[in-house]
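Input/output pair, single chain:
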Amino acid sequence: MSDWKKLRKQYADLERYESGEPTKEQLIAELKEAILELKAVEQGIQQARPLSALLNEL
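Output:
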């Protein structure tokens, strides 16, 4: 943790790479996007992604 703090001081632009808690609006938007993606897969419009790709997003 102390190394990270040193890096943050040295590279001020690194803050944009930190992940904070998502807002309620962000969560809702992501859930809506996921539902639309699932519907497109069910309809054959879009191909399902492998589980490894989904896990990498986490």
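The mean pLDDT is 84. Helices lie at 2-10, 24-42, 51-57.
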